[in-house]
Amino acid sequence: MWIFLGAIVVVAVLGAFPELRPQFEVKGAMKPMGMVDVIQVFMLLAGSALLIFTNVDAGKIGKNEIFRSGMIALVAVFGISWMADTMFAVHTPMMKEALGDIVKAQPWTYAIMLLLISKFVNSQAAAIAAFVPLALGIGVEPGIIVAFAAACYGYYILPTYPSDLATIQFDRSGTTHIGRFVINHSFILPGLIGVFSSCVAGYALAKIAGYI
């Protein structure tokens, strides 16, 4: 445990002080190693140290339920991410044009469009980056965009995100499951309630503050 905690502390320190990270020349300028790479290096190093210096039976790791669940989620999310990225990259111009007309006519549909796009790309940041500039460009009020920011969370619509898959694998009681029609799974109602209530609250606050 202390090896793992030590690796976390080192990662946190390197994140707080970029000057401590290795420097590499990128396009003529010296830049520190990215935090994604730092995390990968030290987590792999911690895993190796645990195998070497503790009494871990490496043969049992693959049989561990947590490890198997994590691997299932990992493989699943890679496939879904590649598929979504390929589809969205090819059809982005068409989708922007079609969705833009709808949002321009009915600004409240911005929340629905953002929700669907976030599911397509499996990323809140990517959904915001793709759709917010379009919404601003066609005249959607900034207050509407801020009020419905919570709609960028659409991972749960289809149970393909690694945390969803891992949760299903971890739950030995069987109460967390994917239904017969796929979309009727254990996450759909909590997700819809959370996003809907957040959007309503955001709209109300924006209205009270005079942003809409």
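[next item in queue]
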Amino acid sequence: MCPTPPWIWLFQQKEHRLRLLHRELSRLEPGYMSNQYTDIDIHLMNFWTGDTDPSLIQFFTPDTDTTFKIANTALDPEDPLDDSFTWAREMKDGQDFIHKEMHHQLHRAFSNYLRKSPGGNKPPILWKLASMRDEDGLFNSNDRHGYTIERGAISADGKTAHQLVVMKSGNCYHDILPSVGELIVLVQWMLSGFKNHKHQFGRYHRHERSQLEFPTMIISFLPDARVRVLHGYYDSGRLKVAYTQALNFDADDYVDKMDVLLQWAWPFMEGDTTKPIPLPMIEDDEEDEWDEWEKWELRYREDCKEEGSKSEERSDSTEVKKDLSDCKSEFDEDDESERENKDPIEEWRDEFVMSAGIKRKIIERLNEKMGSMGK
């Protein structure tokens, strides 16, 4: 029986480890997250530019050319009738006013500027809103960690797997470091991305890679009129996170900060979400150059074959050839089923599925290897 294809194996490994991380985060007490956690790398990010540590892949950048800005609306940010946050700032010295809850008015002002901008009544063409009737509880509030999800969106073109979340928290545990609740939301949405893309592995298309990364960005509205932007992805067994400090919008530069926050509302999607990060490089001096994914795939097959031969101290060459022919027959049967079945999407399964061209190359390479072993 041929082993599980490497892209499915990698997908399963990432999903399994993310589930373990989500379970560990959910058990933590409410608070903030430092870099001392073994499975998480967090790096400070510049709110104004999106610049962060060069070791991270920057899947999101602010859209500096966006039409979503205060100047493109008919609203006056200094008029409390136009800007709910300006109204809250004028009322904050009142006896009954709760300063901690100003982030609710800040979120309302942000949403209003977004909606009143040209084309702001619907997402940009590359994004689509996530349904709030999901089965994964993505929009459920969390009383223990004190957050609610206001909005979610996913990339709409099917070629990338970026996700976007807007949330509000009941506590700001640290002026700089992200909270446990924010990271729980980050991981939970990544897991939802894995679940929703499992059906893509039913068939392998050389020019239509299945998604292997689900980078997620969060705009987090925090008490005392603060906002944090963070985004992350999962790589090599670690959650990689870029985050801004909790910026105070109750300041003289409120209008400038709001305009930059609107640039983050629908950010640019960067990076390739269809390959492992980073994709292992394998040197190959053959004339027909394969892309790196195919080389990695072939190396995976050869390593599996070598491990199998080492585990059997006295293996008969006829048995090896029989196993190889069995594997080849599975390839042939799969080729026939591909021709008969025109439906491009099948249910998730762990059996061997691969394009015919790569199958033939692997068979040729294994035949050469078996021949050299017999000499």
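[queue empty]
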